[in-house]
Design a protein that fits this description.
Two copies of one chain form a homodimer. Chain A folds into three domains: 196 residues, FAD/NAD(P)-binding domain; 163 residues, Alpha-Beta Complex (Polyamine Oxidase, Chain A, domain 2); 86 residues, de novo design (two linked rop proteins). Chain A contains 15 helices and 24 strands. The first copy, chain A, is globular, with a radius of gyration of 27 Å. Chains A and B meet through α3, β8, α4, α5 and α6 of A and α3, β8, α4, α5 and α6 of B. Chains A, B: It catalyses: L-tryptophan + O2 = indole-3-acetamide + CO2 + H2O.
């Protein structure tokens, strides 16, 4: 059947050219942007004699480059920064942070400390990126995304331990539901059997007493802890009243840990998130060209031409290739001279990027004295949360993130002077850990909107609308268009995936792009036998 | 005031002797078994000229020895095994497991693998044991006690992912409670304000729709996962029906992670639990005497005399000391010749120990292909659970615990022939990970009741009764009596704490014992001025 389809496509190509073949392939389900499953089936010499220039050495660019190289393509990666990894950026002592409109910051960290300015956690189900880490021998360690010792902090400053919020609330919910069930209020919703089983479940679920009353639980912490001998037996605190729990504006954030993207077990690379990018790049046959800022992208009759400047020497360079995989963030790409098709150019210009900010400090590990080891404290507002380090346990010093915000609060935050941002992050830490704001030194601010070559963390395809998974909705005409190649130029980016804020999205987009590029190459070979002949 | 009290005690001693002084001190709250808080106040030369023999080099013995040495006592630790650590036992390749009534087992593990046969996790609030790990530079890593990818397995073999059980159940509970609230069924239990805040909370808590209906949630996993481009948008599965969830006998085990002793963040020492014991022992001035089996314990007029046998040479030894700290498990101690006071001897003989079993295998890490990284799968029955390793992520092979059971099911399990225990643990793994039971090799069985020098994992002071924290109740006359010294012999053990199953309990008991020993020494000095004079 393959032969029949090939033969037919060949005939379509002879008559109607590439577009007709592509259309026919698409209608046969043989052409598309999401062919990742077929990567394994592609022979290693598939791309022989074909060249690809990849613009950008973030995860999307590196993954595309690696997978294309593995299939025989001659790949050149061009990266504007002096490092690979893109937003998967680990800041270490001595590193410089340049932001548009701000004074440069230099990291002054104690030995061994680092700060993941971009992505900092990997969920269990992100098997693509975990798989690359495994394949390239990048050691991972557990990232503690949820600690029962962390806090939910109300606007009025009242704070609840996560364990208290979760377990006292579950106690109240269980007590109330048991009451309703026992009153017969839910008899029409529950079968006799469900009712009979639900009640003992609720007793265990909420740690209720024999009469289904919630009188407090040691799950929320001890009033008196257990000790040796008969001096101290464990007892529970009285429950926090329901009204007091509900008054905490952050209460629902207790469920953050059950967002699928945030569920245990989560990971981080040992030593910094950039270890994954470095691991992939280390396995490229041709290493990435760094400090190479793209000036112009041109589609030619039979290939692409990229003009770039070598930032270290100032020399202008031009290179040609058969195909281009462009991973440059759209706000950056919109400023680069290019002869994209008009609808593509206007789609690129239309993409709105979000704000995202992190403010990090170095500090003595005062949070450990409060029995907090990793996890998140939710404070809301423009600084949103405090993120404790999952590594370096029991060492003298560690990194604490005093702000990680995005959305509208993040936008407002990024507009503030840097000194004010630092003061707000420090104050947030101090409000949760009184007296310790002053212990936080070596502040670093990252406002992703101001970071050159990024100009934002991720797009919001439908501004203001987020889907259930906390990720921007993506299914818009511009999103669909940019997920198609413009001739020989293919766009790849986490921005073009369903999860624009995750490295896995970048990887999925890269895989899809490799598949689409191969499809187009095959279509061209069928449509233009002379190309195939020339390449043979 | 101290001087007044001292003077008074001195006078009491002159008239009534040690017992009268001790009684007076106790009534002044100056004597007892729980004086851990005062350890810091004790001067470093407090015990100068006094000797203590510590029987047993588990956590209780090592901690007591270290703290006594730090206060100037001359301490000798006598340990029957060829290693320190007691039940904090890490088995490595080549190690021999001897059990009473069973053939010896030899561990045959691949390089770097180990098995914590006893305790294997440290909760955040166990600041004593964490503090020793920090003090002695024992590196810790996160122990993943709860993974949303693990399973709850019903008797009929149906299995629920932890994420599905937790989030679908929360969805149903929220929907039902919202329904009752909206019907007004709980109007007498809720204020208007509580009602107004509870409804939106429940919507977030259960991931309900606008009409408070639960239609499934991506928190429970994807029906279709998010991808690149427009090929795949994330969608949720339909919820598991409430009746199906309630039919799973293990359903309530979803709450295991909120038992305070099991809450994130939890830790394990890098390389094995014995690293903590080894770290303490390394810091003793006089290292523990190993392979020294105690034969006889005698209280003398003015000290204690211990007879023991050097197992390596067979030579009998006798040593004397001013005091003895005895950490020998009570079922073992009951078989040792001693001149304890009659009520003490009968209390020792009366202590009933529990059963606890672990069956470990080495295997290729098939669970990682199922996106399980650490955590517990609950299967119930005699094997109880499957425990996945928190370390060695992405390596070829790892240790999997196919049974960790105690209580009545554990007792029944331990009675089975070893081959049957191994077959049952393997079958449990195979039922959850079909086809992979056969991948499990190098089985090791530990039935703690059969382990020499332990004869059980922990006591059950009131057999059959467990408290809310899942720990045996401890406040019995025997427990109280053994928490008092018998003359110059002090008992210390996790068994004498409120948490007999935890190393923290052993540490707390050791601290309390050091304080009690110091109290008695002071009382003796006051009651018998000649002793003080002789020691000066």
């Amino acid at each position: 059947m393959t032969i029949t389809r090939r033969t037919m496509l060949h005939r379509i190509g002879a008559v109607g050219g590439l577009t007709a073949v592509a259309g026919a392939m698409q209608s046969m389900g043989w052409f598309g942007v999401a062919r990742a499953a077929s990567l394994e089936e592609m022979p290693g010499d598939l791309g022989q004699g074909r060249s690809v220039v990849v613009l950008g050495a973030g995860i999307a660019g590196l993954v595309a480059a690696f997978e294309l190289e593995q299939r025989g393509f001659d790949v050149t990666v061009i990266e504007a920064r002096g490092r690979v990894g893109g937003k998967a950026w680990t800041v270490r002592d001595g590193d410089r942070i340049a932001m548009q409109g701000e004074q440069d910051q230099i990291a002054h960290f104690s030995e061994g400390l680092y700060f993941n300015a971009g992505p900092a956690r990997l969920p269990s189900f992100h098997q693509g990126i975990l798989g690359y880490a495994k394949r390239f021998g990048v050691p991972l360690e557990v990232e503690v995304n949820s600690s029962r010792s962390a806090y939910l902090v109300a606007k009025n400053g009242n704070k609840l331990r996560m364990r208290t919020a979760i377990n006292d609330m579950r106690g109240h919910v269980s007590e109330l539901l048991a009451k309703a069930v026992n009153q017969g209020a839910l008899d029409s919703a529950l079968s006799m059997d469900e009712k009979a089983k639900l009640l003992p479940f609720l007793k265990a679920y909420g740690d209720l007493q024999g009469d289904y009353a919630f009188k407090g639980t040691t799950r929320s912490g001890f009033r008196t802890g257990p000790g040796a001998g008969v001096s101290s037996f464990e007892t529970a605190n009285a429950p926090v009243p329901l009204a007091d729990l509900l008054a905490n504006e952050q209460l629902a954030m207790m469920g953050f840990e059950d967002n699928l993207y945030m569920q245990a077990t989560m990971f981080q690379p040992v030593g910094g998130m950039d270890q994954i990018s470095l691991g992939i790049e280390r396995h490229l046959k041709k290493r990435a060209v760094l400090d190479a800022e793209v000036l112009r992208i041109r589609q030619l009759e039979s290939g692409v031409e990229i003009a770039w400047i070598d930032k270290s020497s100032g020399a202008a360079r031009i290179m040609r290739a058969d195909y281009c995989v462009c991973t440059i963030p759209f706000p950056v790409l919109a400023g680069i001279e290019a002869n994209f098709a008009a609808p593509v150019a206007s789609a690129i210009a239309s993409v709105v990027y979000e704000d995202s900010n992190k403010v990090a400090f170095e500090a003595p590990r005062f949070w450990e004295r409060d029995q907090i080891y990793g996890g998140l404290t939710f404070v809301g507002g423009e600084t949103s949360l405090i993120w404790y380090p999952s590594w370096g346990l029991h060492e003298d010093r560690g990194m604490i993130v005093g702000c990680y915000s995005s959305g509208e609060p993040g936008k407002a935050f990024a507009r503030r002077p840097m000194a004010e941002q630092i003061a707000m992050a420090r104050a947030a830490i101090d409000s949760v850990h009184p007296g310790h704001g002053a212990d936080c030194s070596a502040p670093l601010v990252v406002n992703w909107r101001k970071i050159p070559y990024s100009l934002g963390p991720w797009p919001n395809w439908i501004p203001g609308v987020r889907n259930r998974g906390e990720h921007p909705m993506t299914d818009t005409p511009a999103f669909r268009l940019l997920n198609q190649p413009d001739g020989r130029i293919f766009f790849a980016s986490a921005a073009l995936s369903q999860t624009p804020g995750w490295q896995e999205g970048a990887l999925q987009s890269a895989h899809a792009t490799v598949a689409a590029l191969v499809d187009q190459m095959r279509a061209r070979a069928l449509a233009e036998p002379r190309v195939r002949a020339a390449a043979a």
